[in-house]
Design goal:
Blueprint lengths: L6 E8 L3 H12 L6 E8 L3 H11 L6 E3 L15 E9 L5 E7 L4 H13 L7 E5 L9 H11 L4 E8 L10 E5 L4 E5 L11 H7 L7 E5 H7 L11 H9 L4 E11 L11 H4 L2 H18 L4 H17 L3 H15 L13 H38 L8 E6 L7 H14 E3 L13 E8 L3 H13 L4 E5 L26 H5 L6 E5 L12 H19 L5 E3 L7 H9 L4 E3 L12 E2 L2 E2 L6 H8 L5 H12 L1
Parallel strand pairs: 1-2, 1-6, 2-5, 7-11, 12-14, 12-20, 13-14, 14-15, 15-16, 17-18, 18-19
Antiparallel strand pairs: 3-4, 4-5, 6-10, 7-10, 8-9
Helix pairs in contact: 1-2, 9-10, 9-11, 10-11, 11-12, 12-18, 13-14
This protein binds zinc ion (ZN).
Length: 622
């Protein structure tokens, strides 16, 4: 924390609940003068809801003034996922209130992330306070959160949530995840607000603040990245909390936040029957998604518990909600994530359709596992014979790393940092033999790599190489992106982003001009793609470019010759192989942030390189 006064950005997501937002802002208007703050609201409910919200906030008795000319000019404007942005101010305070209208319902995490993305370009905030709109925090709630973050050096802080109107009892002090049953426990549920509470004891067992009030320091946000928008609604808070654990979770007992929803989030209640279908569906689906992400070993018990929870709807007299809960459960197992579908039906069918793909992947995994075991035995035998095998290099290639998979990517980098020597993909010379040797590369130079991958690599000072389709810089890809990350809109990095890449940690290579199949091009066109892309890329990034990766891994001996004569020092294919550092042509293995831990373990050890044996055999036959 710096010495200058702390400034906080308060983030609120609205959805057709202008009255709640109004009450929340009225409460915030009474907050203690320090720390200072600005408020950022995203209305997910469309044009009319946005209009209504603005009207309610700016009536004569409302908490806001329409932004008047004497204040600083608006820094945020419409564009991207915001259709409209208005700037208001909180009466009697130097607080700006930015109200944005989302182009569509982005979900809770999605809406937070859009503001977060915008705020990242601004230097004047030290922490974020994520508040539910149906809260009315006490005047010193924020001051206490900030105080706990600073004095105890914590990254993410929880408030004391009390049910609205019943302020003598606590709803929760923080949340704790119960791994076996797949449910959250509200720590301190129904304890007295006046009874003494040991904050350290809460901090020792908490897994996350409640999403109703989470304070996150800027440093922590920069380390853990944005919220996971695959959850859309429900569980994104616990997910963020668990990810923030290594930066310290804190609890500020004196930060008291009355919460309307707090009365209904409780355990069993009559509300089961009247719960909205969306809530039933997403809660059931996301429980499994969350478990698959963080506690894979507990998936079986959580699945059993999920079906049991579904039956509770039946017992509460709602067969409809029972069916929807089951569909949500099946949806998670069919691989669904993100916004809910238009219809809640048909997930069982989707699971059956997915079986062939899943089987194919599992078969590959089984072969690789067998291959790995064979390798281990073979190496041991060679060592016993006094001829230890030569170390080799395994080169990985990724495409983009989307927001929602940042956590998984970070986990992969942690394991690389711990178990491998990560060296540049064009390394020449003698490889160390103390650990496995791995290089990291990214094809297509997507902006998501700058946003989500490079910060994680920088944490461990890991080197990587990025291959740029030179004439697509700053634009959407003009080719079909056929990997799992294709479901989100990718853009290629801009010239500025490429120039800003650290020369010591990131090497830049060419990926052709327009990302075409080079073997299908005429001789002169292919030559252009190879030669000109090098020249143009050198002009863009103002450094020497010596590496080339074939788009789609499409290459031939002729194309390799062209690359040699164009002056490249090494070229990269997509044929998985154990690379020797004397070779000009280097094979790579495809990895995805969504690869399971066992798949990643095997890939970085070259166990998936049995494809090379298959290719060799085919060549012999020919
Ligand atoms: Zn590519």
């Amino acid at each position: 924390m710096s010495e200058r006064p702390c400034h906080v950005a308060i983030l609120i997501v609205g959805f057709h609940n202008s009255k709640d937002v109004l009450n929340c802002l009225c409460a915030l208007a009474l907050a203690t003068p320090k720390p200072s703050f600005d408020i950022f609201i995203c209305e997910n409910g469309g044009k009319e809801a946005f209009q209504e919200l603005n009207n309610v906030l700016t009536t004569a008795h409302g908490p806001c003034n329409i932004h008047s000319g004497h204040q600083a000019l608006p820094r945020f404007s419409a564009g991207g996922k915001f259709a409209e942005v208005k700037c208001l101010s909180l009466k009697g305070r130097a607080t700006s209130v930015w109200v944005a209208r989302a182009t569509e319902n982005l979900g809770y995490a999605g809406a937070i992330n859009v503001w977060l993305n915008r705020l990242q370009t601004i230097a004047d905030w030290d922490g974020l306070w994520i508040l539910n709109p149906d809260t009315e925090p006490y005047p010193d709630a924020l001051a206490n959160l900030v105080d706990r973050a600073i004095t105890c050096n914590k990254g993410m802080i929880s408030s004391t949530i009390v049910p609205e109107g019943l302020s003598d009892f606590v709803h929760n002090r923080a949340l704790r995840w119960k791994k076996v049953s797949g449910s959250t426990e509200a720590i301190g549920f129904q304890t007295s607000l006046r009874a003494p509470c040991d904050s350290n004891a809460v901090e020792a067992i908490m897994d996350s603040p409640s999403g109703a009030s989470m304070y996150v320091t800027r440093e922590c946000v920069e380390h853990i990245g944005p919220m996971d928008d695959r959850f859309f609604l429900y569980f994104e808070d616990v997910d963020w909390g668990i990810r923030a654990k290594k930066f310290g979770l804190g609890y500020a007992s004196q930060s008291i936040v009355p919460h309307k929803g707090g009365t209904t989030i409780g355990k069993l209640s009559a509300s089961r029957k009247i719960r909205s279908e969306l809530a039933v569906y997403l809660e059931s689906r996301n429980r499994i998604l969350f478990c698959k992400k963080h506690f894979k070993w507990y998936c079986a018990s959580v699945s059993v518990a999920s079906v049991a929870y579904a039956f509770l709807y039946l017992f509460a007299g709602s067969p409809r909600n029972f069916k929807i809960a089951i569909e949500g459960f099946l949806a998670a197992w069919s691989g669904e994530a993100g916004p809910p579908p238009d219809s809640y039906d048909g997930h069982l069918r989707a699971i059956f359709f997915n079986i062939p793909t899943a089987l194919y992947r599992k078969t590959k995994l089984a072969i690789s596992l067998a291959h790995y075991c064979g390798q281990v035995v073979w190496r041991a035998a060679l060592s016993i014979l006094g001829r230890p095998p030569l170390p080799h290099l395994t080169i990985l290639y990724y495409h983009g790393v989307q927001n929602s998979l940042r956590f998984e990517f970070a986990r992969q980098m942690n394991s690389l940092a711990a178990t491998a020597n990560v060296i540049p993909a064009d390394f020449e010379g003698t490889l160390p033999s103390d650990k496995i040797n791995v290089s990291i590369t990214f094809d297509d130079a997507f902006a998501s790599v700058v946003e989500n991958a490079l910060p994680e690599l920088a944490c461990h000072s890991l080197h990587s190489t990025i291959f740029v389709p030179v004439r697509v810089v700053g634009r959407e890809p003009n080719w079909v992106v056929d990997d799992q990350s294709s479901t989100f809109q990718q853009v290629v990095m801009t010239t500025e982003q490429l120039k800003a890449l650290s020369p010591t940690l990131v090497a830049i290579g060419s990926h052709g001009l327009l990302h075409t199949h080079l073997s299908e091009e005429s001789k002169s066109q292919a030559e252009d793609e190879i030669r000109r892309s090098r020249k143009e890329l050198q002009d863009i990034v103002e450094r020497e470019v010596n590496l080339f990766a074939f788009p789609y891994g499409d290459y031939s001996q002729h194309l390799i010759g062209l690359c040699k004569s164009a002056g490249y020092s090494h070229v990269f294919t997509t044929d998985a192989a154990n690379v020797q550092t004397t070779s000009f042509v280097r094979g790579r293995i495809k990895v995805e942030p969504s690869d399971s831990q066992i798949e990643f373990f095997l890939k970085i050890r070259g166990a998936y390189n049995w494809g090379a044996i298959k290719r060799k055999m085919l060549r012999v036959k020919r």
